[in-house]
Each structure stands twice: as structure tokens, then as C-alpha cells.
Amino acid sequence: LGATHMLTGYDHLLFIFGVIFFLASFKDIIKFISVFTLGHCITLIFATFFKITANYYLIDAVIAVSVMYKGFENIDGFKKHFDWTPPSLLKMVFIFGLIHGFGLSTRLQQLPLGDDQGAMLARILSFNLGVEVGQILALSAMLIILNGWRKAASFAKFAYAANIGLIAGGIFLFFMQFHGYWHTSHPDDFPLNKDDHSHIHQDME
């Protein structure tokens, strides 16, 4: 289930794609992905075990912001447009890893994990292991594509456009998640009744 969630989590995949987009060194890839993995493992395990939760639409909206941030950072947007040097990328990847892990936790907490703490921890760790397997599979496919593309003349030509696409994808995901939050938190503001809204958003998921 964890692997499936990661492989179908477009926001997580887009962020990882943005992180490794310009990383040609295997050492750098391992360093950044390890920091991201550490971050999301911390919040996934501890937030789920101690039942710390939040509205998952809002958390996923923040995850969408992380996608926008990485795409904008990749095109050097902070320096070009704001004359501002962003924080250490390694630090930001860790922070966003914490947020991504919290997003995974909010979804996991919707499942019946049981009341026995030992069994619950085993299920959480099993889900987390699945997430890591899914991440490795997705990362492997991305690296194959990127390594092949970097050798082509079109990489330099379309790298900027690809990261603009990353920003656009983050914006789309942000508004999609905020739309879901608004529907579920303010059902009376829309013409359908509350039960219809709940049913529609369950179908969307």
C-alpha cells in the first residue's frame, strides 16, 4: 500500500523529479534523496504513531508549494526575480521531506491501524518500507530518463521549459487541494448538500 501510494502520488514524484533534475553526480543524488527520505520517515512514523494529524487537503496544498518552490529554484528564480539567495537546498529538502511525510501520515491515519501499539507500529513501519520501495522504483525510472536526456542537445534547450512545467504542475495541484479543502470545510457554500460533496470527493480520491 505504501509503494502504491508513492507511485501514484504525483506531488511527491514531481518534487523528487525537481530535486534530481540537475544532479549529475551519484553522490549528490544519494545525499539529497537520503535527506528527503529521513525527513519524511520522521513525520510519517511519529505523527502516525502519536496520532498527530491535520486536514490532509491543506497538507497536500503545502506539498504542492514544495513542487513550485523546487521548480522556481531550479530556474534560479529567487536570484533573478527577487535578488534573494534561498536557504541551503539540503536544508529545504529536509524540511519539505518532513512536510511530505506528514502528508503521508494523514492518509495512513485514515486506515484502521488497530489499538495495540506493537501491531500499529509494525503496520506503520511496513507502510513506510513500502513508501521507500516505491520511491526507489520511481527514482530509478527518473534517473534512466534524465541520464539519457542529458546526453541529448535538447536538454539544455528544454530544461527551463521543463521546470516551468514543474511550477505549473505545483500550481495546479495547489488549487486542486485547496478546492477539496474548501468543499469539505464549507459545504453550505455550494449548491450540493454535504453528503453529496463528501461522496464526490471520496470518488475523486
Structure description:
Helix content is 80%, strand content 0%. The chain contains nine helices and no strands. The protein is globular, with a radius of gyration of 18 Å. 29% of the residues are buried.
Q: What's the shape? A: globular
| H-E order | HHHHHHHHH
Helix content: over 70%
Number of helices: 9
Main beta-sheet strand count, sense and barrel state: none
Radius of gyration: 18 Å
Strand proportion, as a percent range, falls in under 5%
| Mean pLDDT, all residues | 91
Number of DSSP E strands? 0
Low-confidence stretches: none
Report, as a whole number of angstroms, the end-to-end distance. Answer: 15 Å
Structural class by secondary-structure content: mainly alpha
Produce a short descriptive summary.
By secondary structure, the protein is an all-alpha fold.
